[in-house]
Amino acid sequence: MSEFFLIILAYFIGSISNAVWIGKRFFHIDIREYGSGNAGATNTFRVLGPRAGTVVMILDMLKGVVAVQLAHLLPYYNQPGHASQLMNFQLALGLAAVVGHIFPIWAEFRGGKGVATLFGMVLAIQPVVALCCVGVFILVLFLTRYVSLSSILAAIAFPLLILFIFREHAFVYQVFAILIALLVIFTHQKNIQRLLHGRENRVSLFKKRRSSSEQNHPDS
């Protein structure tokens, strides 16, 4: 079993579009036809409510966790003294899963933004850093009820934690953390514009999902 095969497998795992599957199976809608049009946890929260959004978020996180763990299928990466090589390969596997989430082969290459899958891969590699990021996410979400803003600030916190708090010495991981923050900002450009203009929708943390006519509002 080669590294190339495992990276392809990680992409296929990332391509499992949980938001699309849950929307069609339990709500009889294609989540990509409502709200922001993304097949991710944020739009699921907005369109289908907090219960479905939480399930999608957890499943999308698991994609990142499982993809990273594929590295242990190769005996080479389990040997002492190969920690840096293991981390580098885990990063490649995790990124392949994120690409799969954004461009899923199982869902016409129309996926989500990859934040939950990114968090899952970080959780598998550095759980303490990931938990700090999720703390930022939850705090911002509780204070503002903006999932997009919560995701952006948690992503920005990631390289700050890596560079200044935990002082990670691996250069590849430092670059990875910075690139991830930039990627999340780039993929949330429309959300940032809506936030700046006061048109970004807040999610309800306790109420049921809205009706279909409300879900399909063009500003969602």
Automatic annotation (TrEMBL):
Enzyme Commission code: 2.3.1.275
Transmembrane segments: 86-106, 118-139, 146-165, 171-189
Keyword terms: Acyltransferase, Cell membrane, Lipid biosynthesis, Lipid metabolism, Membrane, Phospholipid biosynthesis, Phospholipid metabolism, Transferase, Transmembrane, Transmembrane helix
Annotated localization: Cell membrane
Bilayer disposition of the protein: Multi-pass membrane protein
Main location (coarse class): membrane
An example Gene Ontology CC term for this record: plasma membrane
GO process terms (BP): phospholipid biosynthetic process
Keyword Transmembrane carried by entry: yes
InterPro entries: G3P_acylTferase_PlsY
Subunit and interaction comment: Probably interacts with PlsX.
Function description: Catalyzes the transfer of an acyl group from acyl-phosphate (acyl-PO(4)) to glycerol-3-phosphate (G3P) to form lysophosphatidic acid (LPA). This enzyme utilizes acyl-phosphate as fatty acyl donor, but not acyl-CoA or acyl-ACP.
HAMAP family per the UniProt record, alphabetical: PlsY (MF_01043)
Protein name in the entry: Glycerol-3-phosphate acyltransferase
Organism: Thermoflavifilum thermophilum
Gene: plsY
